[in-house]
Amino acid sequence: MHTTTTTTTTTTAATTTTTSTAITTTTTTTTTTTTTTTTTTTTTTTTTTLLLLLLLLLFLLLPPPPPTTTLLLLLLLLLLLLPLLLLLLLLLLLLLLLLLQLLLLLLLLYYYYFYYYYYYYY
């Protein structure tokens, strides 16, 4: 995807006023400066996605392969999906750590509540 941004800057400068006893002359000079800025954003498709699409096309367009080839293609698909699975595992681990923090916070609040109760009433 390509994005082009154009910026126009107008500058007005140099206003000169000349005054004599009988005649008043005003001279205004306007300078216009145009600046064009082009920003290019390139969206790239990863090699993994392209390989997955190619594999999907192979499954859809070609006749059914022998069982060993099917097994090899499924193994290749698993290898291609491995980074996604690792990312999912990392997200689950982060969620687990967040829940552990919440549990520790609740335990801490529970402890302080009963400590305050014990200290205040006994």
TrEMBL record:
Transmembrane regions listed in the UniProt entry: 44-62, 71-96, 102-121
Superkingdom, natural source: Eukaryota
Keywords associated with the record: Membrane, Transmembrane, Transmembrane helix
Protein name listed in UniProt: Uncharacterized protein
Species whose genome carries this gene: Dreissena polymorpha (Zebra mussel)
